[in-house]
């Protein structure tokens, strides 16, 4: 992979606007070259709000890329775990955002994101970017947009779960004006690849695409679990179900990942049932009128039942248990 030289830190003296141009005793590191062709870029200070299962590995990748990162999380211990990696732990969103060049939010919903953003925006540096990377839905983005007055808002939810977040192979679905894309890309390149889908964060083009892709993932997750539950009930070995799919046009690597998790009884969360139910609810919010999403609504109901059965904090493969009543699920 080709690489380009990145200059870390802000040179002393001068205005923030001139910081991008002036260079004094820079420290060099190497970061991957993606689709852009800049030879040198200024790395910046990032305020990262939300260091849960997805946020924490994203922070570590930013630190490895040479960014200065200040972190805040409502449960402080989750943020403190990143201190040994080099992150600076803040007591509040405003403390994390003080004079930062970039704000990243990776929070649970629109209300939490707007609330934390409201605290942070006033403390940010001049011409700061706000990269909204959580999955908060169309209504959530509508809550965030008015809070972002005075900063450059980028709608940028991500595709991927914990492992891609750890590997830096997430897909960022981004919407922002051309004028701020190069600066945003410096952050995104440390996290994965970027797909630009819109020119205005207020239109929530990235968020809208994320909902469509999530509808597919949630449906596939439930299809695997339900098919394996059906095999069990018919006296068929679920392993034979996966083997029968193998190499056919209807096969899917994802089916084998989730199917194997069910077979092994391994529900260590990559993305939880509770999170899947939340995302299914965001999809349900945009239905109505002439649009009917029967499969999406059925998926939401299955995730709800799995949460009620006590599987909310397990991997979403545990939606498998929604196919059974009470204690009737096969034990593995």
Give a brief description.
The protein has 332 residues and is an alpha/beta fold. The protein contains 13 helices and eleven strands. Helix 9 crosses helix 11 (253-264) and helix 9 (205-233) packs across helix 12 (273-285).
Characterize the main sheet: 6 strands, parallel
Estimated structural class: alpha/beta
Strand ordering within the main sheet: 5-4-3-6-7-8
Radius of gyration: 21 Å
Provide the low-confidence segments as ranges: 1-41
Number of helices: 13
Approximately how much beta-strand content do the residues carry? 15-25%
Number of strands: 11
Secondary structure: helix percent: 40-55%
Approximate shape:
elongated
Name the average pLDDT. Answer: 88
Oligomer: single chain
Give the N-terminus to C-terminus distance in angstroms.
43 Å
The helix/strand order is: EHEEHEHEHEHEHEEHEHEHHHHH
């Amino acid at each position: 992979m080709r690489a380009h030289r990145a200059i870390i830190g802000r040179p002393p003296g001068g205005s923030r606007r001139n910081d991008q141009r002036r260079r004094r005793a820079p420290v060099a590191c190497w970061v991957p070259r993606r689709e852009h062709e800049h030879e040198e870029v200024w790395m910046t200070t990032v305020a990262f709000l939300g260091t849960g299962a997805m946020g924490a590995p994203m922070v570590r990748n930013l630190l490895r890329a040479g960014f200065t990162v200040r972190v805040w999380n409502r449960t402080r211990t989750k943020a403190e775990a990143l201190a040994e990696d080099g992150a600076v732990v803040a007591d509040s969103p405003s403390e994390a955002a003080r004079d930062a060049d970039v704000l990243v939010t990776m929070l649970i919903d629109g209300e939490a994101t707007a609330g934390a953003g409201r605290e942070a925006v006033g403390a940010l540096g001049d011409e700061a970017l706000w990269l909204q990377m959580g999955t908060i839905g169309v209504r959530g983005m509508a809550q965030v947009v008015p809070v972002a007055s005075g900063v450059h808002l980028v709608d940028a939810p991500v595709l991927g779960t914990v492992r891609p977040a750890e590997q830096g192979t997430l897909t960022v679905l981004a919407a922002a004006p051309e004028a701020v894309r190069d600066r945003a890309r410096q952050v995104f390149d440390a996290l994965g690849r970027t797909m630009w889908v819109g020119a205005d964060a207020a239109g929530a083009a990235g968020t809208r695409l994320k909902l469509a892709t999530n509808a597919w993932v949630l449906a596939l997750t439930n299809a695997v679990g339900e098919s394996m539950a059906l095999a069990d009930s018919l006296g068929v070995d679920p392993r034979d179900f996966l083997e029968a799919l193998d190499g056919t046009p209807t096969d899917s690597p994802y089916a084998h990942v989730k199917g194997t998790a069910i077979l092994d009884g391994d529900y260590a969360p990559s993305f939880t049932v509770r999170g899947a139910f939340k995302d299914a609810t965001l999809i349900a919010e945009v239905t109505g009128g002439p649009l009917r999403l029967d499969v999406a609504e059925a998926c939401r109901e299955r995730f709800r039942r799995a949460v009620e059965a006590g599987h909310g904090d397990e991997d979403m493969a545990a939606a498998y248990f929604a196919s059974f009543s009470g204690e009737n699920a096969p034990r593995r």
